[in-house]
Amino acid sequence: MRKRSVTVRVARWSALHPGRAITGWLLFVALCLGGGIAAGMNGATSEDFRVGEAGRAEALATEGGVPLRSTEHVLIRPRSGPPDKAAADAAVKDVTARMKALPEVASVAPPVRSADGRVLRVQVELHGSERDDQKHVPPLQAATEKAAKAHPDLVIEETGDASVSKGVDDQRGKDLQFSEAITLPITLITLAVVFGSVIMVGVPILLAVTSIMATMGLAMLASHLLPDTGVGMSMILLIGMAVGVDYTLFYLKREREERARAGGRLTSEALVEAAAATAGRAIVVSGLAVIVSTTALYLARDVIFDSLATGTILVVAVAMVSSVTVLPALLVKLGRRTERRTARRLAKGKTPRTHGEKTYGEKTYGEKTYGQKASGEGENTSAEKESGRLWNALLAPARKRPALTLCLSVLVLLGLALPALNMNLKNPARDSFSREIPAMKGYDRLLDAFPELRVRHLVVVRADASRADDVREALTELDRTAQRDPLFAHSSAAPVLRSSADRRTTTLKLNSPHPTYSKDAEVSLEHLRADYLPATVGKLPGVETAVTGEVPRGVDYVEHQNEKLPLVLGFLLLMTFAMTVFAFRSVVLGLLGALLNLLSVGSALGLLVLVFQGDWAEGLLAFESLDGISSRVPLFLFVILFGLSMDYQVFVVSRIREAALNGVPTRQAVLDGIASSAKVVTSAAIVMVTVFASFVMLHILEMKQMGFVLAAAVLLDAFVIRVMILPAALLLLGRATWWPSGAIRRAEARLAERYEAPAHAPEHAPAHASEHAPAHVPGRSSEHSAWQ
After folding, report:
1. What integer pLDDT is reported at residue 86 of this predicted model?
2. How many CB atoms within 10 Å of residue 115?
3. 629-630/425-426 β-pairing
4. N or C, fewer C-beta in 10 Å, the chain?
5. Below-70 pLDDT ranges, the chain
6. What is the pTM of this model?
7. What is the C-alpha separation between 128 and 125, in angstroms, rounded?
8. CA–CA distances in Å: residue 316 to residues 211, 237, 243
9. Packing angle, helices 632-661 and 232-262, rounded to 10
10. Ordered structural domains, the chain, with CATH
């Protein structure tokens, strides 16, 4: 007898000690959550976000004591009628006095009047970095509200960097609550359709929720090693609900099959152990595949992707552990309850009701009979009957015309992928945020009155203190040069220059009236960096220069992502290939899996470009197009989808391999394996699509794009890749699917020898070898051999 795998041994212990396993899991969740709350969340600082030249400029300015600070603007305008100068001046004095009294405020500038004379603007600079000032802005907002109440005839409102950022964070929290409210009911309905049992519906939800809770605590602890950027918790919720329910679905489905096959001859403990031999190990393999794939995000060398990767890895690992530890214990508890109910019905002389009763009879292909018949079971059922007429119809094209189905399906997906060739990556900026945020409404009014404030370019120069006067003169010349360029804002005011106390660092602020994500704004930066800066300050010897601001950050970030994308994609392809070969001992399947993942990702990206890069869907999905795609989305999609696709790959192909290792011809093994896993894979896909699609209704454009592309990718993967392309490809490959492994060939040979009766067989020899087939042994089922 072969040694049981770790998965089976863990499930066996959990099944034999369900009370301890459940208590241990709840204690683990409580310790993780309590430890995380006690440690607190360590948020990322401005230094963690620095990338490229823009990051270098910020470092120079910060080291010199002249950082690019958060700027708030208080707008004062008449509620109706013409401006009242006396009332406006009084309001300005009041606002200025209130702001100067706050410790969070570094400086308050004199008021500036708009071109039409109706709006006065008071600029307020905050202490500290831009990233840290979100928590400092509430006192300023409170002061602005008090000033507004003191001057009821005027409209006094505040907007700016910190208030917009705080509004976005507040909106993100509300969005996540909305997403949860949508996701949970649809998940419950899907599970109810799959299992037809309220109790069984509760098990996946319970494990998913507790896994998310434990992961949130672990993420807080992990943030002290890798700072959190605020997106990690969103990813834990997004991925945690999806994989948590998925893993439980696959395990429950297999346990129910084992129960039906046993026909009441095995205990709940034995059934759980038998399910662990197949579904349990498949969950571990697929979970490890997601984890390994997600580590590719760390190669991007970006704090946001580090946060996304950490949250995803932790929640997948916790969901995987819960599925192979506490889930067997819960199933045993439920199984014992069913057994007691059955025993009571038998004692009363009633016929026991079977739970999910199915039969697994013999299958005949050609002249050979495969499989064994459990006592009391019928002879006529098959995987096709179990999956229903719908899945037979969906599989019909691949079964009848595999070559044509493969070609047409691939062509359709390639056609969907074509728009991705014109993808224009953008870094989402303030202009793309939802106008439901009060600070964004004020931001629009600010730009209407003062359009020159749309874009800030900050030129940072570091030189020896002895050259400070030369630097200031060169920067003044740079300002005059920019003033002559229509891409920059024109002003008659003196250049906005700041110098450090030691005179070694000097900054110049230049404005552009164009939207942050527009081509004009990017070209203005290009002119500044490539032409104007080298022609002025760049001529001075021993001078270090750099430019930062919202547009420089976005441009440098996209360039950084483009540099890292080939490395991440290469790592993903290699890991997908290696994990598939490890799971199935097949190089052919490894290559096929990598190609199918590329096809799935490409078609999903093409759909993303079609919907979000243009403006035709703006009203439908409530967003403002950037004329491009968020720069983080493609890399994120590659990593997450490669991992999630391995879920379907492992669960579907494992069923095919099980059948093939039992001697079923590869063609029939493909059809039966896909048909038998179709219902649960579809259910899992529906849950995932529901979770991801709920993010399309959120306000943040980047989250909309991520939710849309993931939902589209899962739909294409579940209903095109796994139903059309995969079976067609495997049917055409035949036995070559398993190359170079000889396990399938040896299994077919052994079965042929078993069923070929010798010519001199004694008269008392059994008519069918299946009559002497070994009884179903927990952990040693024929399916278990597929993983040995």
Report:
1. 93
2. 10
3. parallel
4. N
5. 1-3, 128-132, 194-200, 342, 346, 349-391, 748, 751-752, 754-788
6. 0.79
7. 9
8. 9, 11, 7
9. 10
10. 6-39+197-341 (1.20.1640.10), 52-165 (3.30.70.1430), 381-427+566-754 (1.20.1640.10), 438-554 (3.30.70.100)
